[in-house]
Design a protein that fits this description.
Layout lengths: L1 E8 L5 H16 L4 E8 L6 E8 L2 H8 L2 H9 L9
Antiparallel strand pairs: 1-3, 2-3
Helix pairs in contact: 1-3
């Protein structure tokens, strides 16, 4: 199993934009071949902090996912962040 995490701190005024974009990405990713889990979690202490947790069956499955349009949307989200993602 391959785990991938991405921590994002969004600008407060861009929070709804990030959530709207992520909601549109969750279900399509979940039905991709090899996707075991694809979740977005909110930090209970900072409502502008989110973690995207991905679980893939193989490295090949993750790489195939990364090459899809969904990943371009993730890159576009970087403009909404107040800090560099981790």
């Amino acid at each position: 199993m391959i785990l991938s995490t991405l921590k994002m701190i969004v600008q407060p005024k861009k929070r709804s934009d990030l959530l709207e974009t992520m909601r549109g990405m969750l279900e399509p990713a979940r039905v991709e071949r090899g996707c075991l889990s694809y979740r977005l979690s909110e930090d209970v202490e900072n409502t502008n902090a989110f973690v995207l947790l991905e679980e893939w069956a193989t490295q090949e499955d993750l790489e195939r996912h990364i090459s899809k349009d969904n990943q371009r949307r993730i890159l576009a989200l970087m403009d909404l962040l107040s800090e560099q993602p981790e």
